[in-house]
Amino acid sequence: MTRIVSYNILAGGYSLRQNGERRSPQLTHIIRSAQPDIVGVVEATHEQMKQRPLVIEEIAEALDMQLIKGGHVDRPNDYPSALLTRLPVVYSRVHARPGVLERPLLEVCVEESDGQQLTVFVVHLSAAFSQGWAGDHLRQREVREILRITAPLREEGRPHVLIGDFNSLAPGDPFKASALLRYIVHLDATKRLRLPDGHPHLNFVVPPRLRFLNPLLRAIPRSKLLSMLFDAAAYCYAPRGTIRLLRAAGYIDCYRRMHPHSPGFTCPAGAPAGRIDYIFASPTLAARLASCSEITESEGLPGSDASDHLPVMAEFGTAVQPVPSVVEWDSATARMSS
What we know:
alpha+beta; six-stranded mixed beta sheet; Deoxyribonuclease I, Chain A; 24% strand; 10 helices
């Protein structure tokens, strides 16, 4: 079995609202509960937090896993990705595409316990929620580039996964927009920071031309009726083309494959509203899918104490080896059968 976890650990694992407090113990506790072989980490480091060891380095040491960093980001207020693994690393690559990919795509190939190779791509797509459908077009552009990068693996049928924070809803998935709005309004009321802390704020999700509606938006969470209307409108408005592209390319949404009807919300962890963290498997790997679930807590520790995202875990069984055709001689009928 190979267990894979996808986890956005929020701003490199630092709680800037608590004077840069490290969330290393909480994150380690949550990850360890899954006993993973591979962890794709989104927002793995904070570019303005330099004191060593970094949180991600503390987690790697505590879990006795190798750390592969995903390169640097162009913007000072952004966060690179990383991968942790206890499996032998065959190779790693960083795909930087300035102007196309907002953040570099990390590719790591590992050797599974049965000797087969498995390639993992750690993805963090653009948020750009305040840009509405234009933001979805940005994410679709990123996905098309990722599909170009992964095309050789698809053509050769090599097992691989795309994991991470896709900042996108899947077609047909529910969306509790009022819960997200309530969470953001609460954060706005308490935010007094100069450093970016990874949390969203109202102007981050509301287009500039609609910000005159902010007073109304702040009132919506206080009304059950307005919340219901807001949820219905947001469900219809939320673009879903990004995940549709991945499905069209043949990738299997592991969580939805195992849970056709469960919401599976992953964000925000403190007020689950939508599913934007995924593990997508290539068809050859999806044939080995044994389980997939979100991790909401671990031995009494809520996931919201560790990050604003809940991790997703998928387990893949051993690859089935082809059985050679056995030719037998039936002496009674003097004929060959296979």
